[in-house]
Amino acid sequence: MTDERGQDGVPGERPRPRRGPLRWWRVRSRTASGESAGGESGEDVLRLRRELREARLDLAACERAAERTRTELARARDTAGRDARQRSRADMEQLVAAISTPLAQLMTQAHLHRTGTAEVRAGDVLDVANRLVRGLREAGVDAVGEPGAVEPFDPSRHDPLSAAATGTVAAGRPVVVRVPGLLYEGRIVRKAGVEAETAEAEQEGTG
């Protein structure tokens, strides 16, 4: 009869094998042979690292492109703003040049009348006013309606002078222009002030 003893010399117990170092060697051997602990081969790991690096490069390129786009957009806005200001300034200079002569004459007449140094006749003032209107028309400014004229009511061109009539005048109804409006290059800047036509207004418009 064989006497089997364990590690501590106790009869009846067989020695247990130590698996720690053996298990570590097996994991190391699989990794060294090209297989990771998660079951992925070395080629897969390299491929994933390469794809990650390429993705980072693509992201950096996109960020640089976005920054360039933002810079170009800001530059385009600044350029458009400067161009708009220059066009506005040029239009204003053209308008002032067109009315400069009659406007200066009108200011001179007002000074003469105010100081009493010279007689200012109404006809002279009207002549200057007509030249001023012609200068404005050359610059693109025109009148909407003539005072005393009878026209069909158009909400886009006419504005009732009476607050009670606002919103109650039907489109197409005859109205009398009392205060002419203004338009610039075909766009209405100020509507003409009108009143509902009466028998007296009709005689005034046809007289």
Question: What is the CA-atom radius of gyration, in angstroms?
Answer: 47 Å
Share of β-strand residues: 5-15%
Estimate percent helicity.
40-55%
Strand ordering within the main sheet? 2-4-7-3
The description of the largest β-sheet is: 4 strands, mixed
N- to C-terminal distance: 152 Å
Average of per-residue pLDDT values: 80
Please tally the β strands and state the result: 7
Q: Looking at the structure, what is the overall shape?
A: elongated
Regions with little confidence, pLDDT below 50 for 5+ residues: none
Written account of the structure:
With 207 residues, the chain is α+β, with helices and mostly antiparallel strands. The protein has a domain at 143-207. Helix content is 54%, strand content 14%. The chain contains four helices and seven strands, in the order H-H-H-E-E-E-E-E-E-E-H. It has helices at 20-32, 42-115, 122-138, 199-206; strands at residues 141-144, 150-152, 158-160, 174-179, 181-184, 187-190, 192-196. The chain has a four-stranded mixed β-sheet. A hairpin with a 2-residue loop joins strand 5 and strand 6. Helix 2 (42-115) packs antiparallel against helix 3 (122-138). The protein is elongated and about 105 Å long. The chain starts with 19 loop residues before the first helix and ends with a helix. The mean pLDDT is 80.
Name some characteristics of this structure.
single chain, alpha+beta, 4-stranded mixed beta sheet, 3-stranded antiparallel beta sheet, elongated
